[in-house]
Model the fold of this input.
Amino acid sequence: MNCPHCDEKVPLTWGRYFKAAFQHHLCPSCGKRFKVIVTASSFVVLLVATVIAAGMPAVVAFFLAHNFWYTIGAYVFFVVVLVLPFDRWLDSHVRPVKPVD
Ligand SMILES: [Zn+2]
Done:
């Protein structure tokens, strides 16, 4: 993603991704704040990806193990392994940014 103030390319590291409260980021070049906009379409894409990538394995885990905790564990595992990296990629490559202040 590029800073809307100075157009510097800001790499979205995992540290920056998890520290960004309400999608607010601090540009390391100019020090100004900007926000990643979660559009409705990117939210729907993420929701569908979550159902496919984490919901379906959880359903499979439920029918294989008949155990509530395996189902929750499979869901959380696939959210962490597949959905969070996809959300970070959406933030970094797809979602628009706008200046704050
Ligand atoms: Zn900047």
Summary: The CA atoms of residues 40 and 46 lie 10 Å apart. The chain has one domain: 14-99. The pocket of zinc ion is lined by residues 3, 5-6, 8, 27, 29-30, 32 (CB under 6 Å).
